Amino acid sequence: MDVTQATQPLRTIGSPSWHGRARATRRFPRLAAPVLLAGFAAACDESPTDRADAAQTPLRVQVQKPPPGVDIDRRFAPGRVVDAQGRLGWYPHEGGLLRYRVNIRFGLEPHTMPEGWHFGRVSAVATDSANRVFVFQRGAVADPIIVFDSEGKYLRSFGREFDFANEHGLRIDRYDNVWVTDNRGHTVRKFRNDGELLLTLGIEDQAGTTEETFDRPADIAFGPNDEVYVADGYGNSRVVKFDPDGDFLRTWGSPGSGPGEFNLVHSLATDSRGNVYVSDRENSRIQIFDSEGNLLRIWTHLGSTQGIFITPDDAMWIITHRDNIEGVTYGSLAGRIMRVDIDTGEILGAMESPGHWIDVSDAGEIYIASLTGSVFKWYQGWLP
């Protein structure tokens, strides 16, 4: 499979590189040489007739065993390693292992929050221009929005007076304003960095499909001209676009699995050209649109993506799962962080991490919000 297909309009590329393990094992019960099971991925670029033929004649791709310590090039041979006795081995890290270390108790050790405070389920995390870390959490003891410095020291908190029904998404725009989605309250709120409410989109506790209402919104993104995009994703299946003042501009999307249709719009982000990358989570794909909602291409090889983050210089990061069943059944535990080439969709590196939300600071540190009640801070500091 040529990953450059990702740049072609309306072209679906790839397959989830973790899929098809049981199927591949049955197809190749015992092999005499190290191979990669690539039939499932190759079939994704074929017609239904081609796939039926392939089912009758299994595809076998011979791949040289790499030298010790060298990852297999997963762009061209996705699958699982099998040794000379036919035993399944570990998956390689797609694109190579990302060399980061992690603080798994960010904001909790040392404990600097007010006495008795702790995180409930942490749904989102974001950083501002000063590398302050904003944590959106669902616990009843602490305030819903808690702010730390980059070392995890408590600074301040706010948001309790809004009585969020279900804290979900948090993003920070280029002016350091803080935007949050209340998933069950059907609202998007914009705060100043210090917590002063500036704007509310949607009608509190009223679900709808009009220009003024949402139905369980999940995420927010900002265009290069300060446009605001809302992932109106749990109850509705659409993206809603507003101007910088919060006035409605347009919407696109409908329920389904066809091109331009969605089954849970969970996350979205924009690049420097204004294109909108939408996690169509339950369909296990990312759909990419221009700023007017015209579909450009579809990526199906990245699994069931929980969160997308794109830096100002178009470095793309995701937190993802093999498929939507794994994401839901395992409670967002068995995930992976991936660095993705924004032009081709090629996976440039990966590492394991649970997580529901991802943010990358200006300092290059990766923050993950986990529904386990944790914030993970990934930083460079690989041990020799």
For the record, what CATH class of the largest domain applies? Mainly Beta
Radius of gyration: 21 Å
Give me the side-by-side strand order of the main sheet. Answer: 1-21-20-19-18
| Quantity of strands, as a count | 28
- The chain-level mean pLDDT equals 84
Structural class: mainly beta
The CATH topology name of the largest domain reads: Neuraminidase
How much beta, percentage-wise?
25-35%
Shape: globular
Q: What can you see in these coordinates?
A:
The protein has 384 residues and is mostly beta strands. It folds into two domains: 19-82, no CATH class; 101-379, Neuraminidase, CATH 2.120.10.30. It is 7% helix and 34% strand. It is built from four helices and 28 strands. It has helices at residues 21-27, 39-43, 48-56, 324-329; strands at 12-13, 35-36, 61-62, 81-82, 101-103, 122-127, 133-137, 145-148, 154-158, 167-172, 178-182, 187-191, 197-201, 219-222, 228-232, 238-242, 248-252, 265-270, 276-280, 285-289, 295-299, 304-310, 316-321, 336-340, 347-352, 357-360, 366-370, 374-379. The strands form seven sheets. It has a five-stranded mixed β-sheet with strand order 1-21-20-19-18, with no helix packed on it. Strands 5-28-27-26 form a four-stranded antiparallel β-sheet, with no helix packed on it. Mean pLDDT is 84; it is low at 1-11, 19-64 and 74-78.
Quick structural overview:
7% of the residues lie in helices and 34% in strands. The protein is mostly beta strands and 384 residues long.
List keywords for this structure.
single chain; 384 residues; mainly beta; Neuraminidase; 2 domains; five-stranded mixed β-sheet; four-stranded antiparallel β-sheet; 4 helices; 34% strand; globular; disordered N terminus
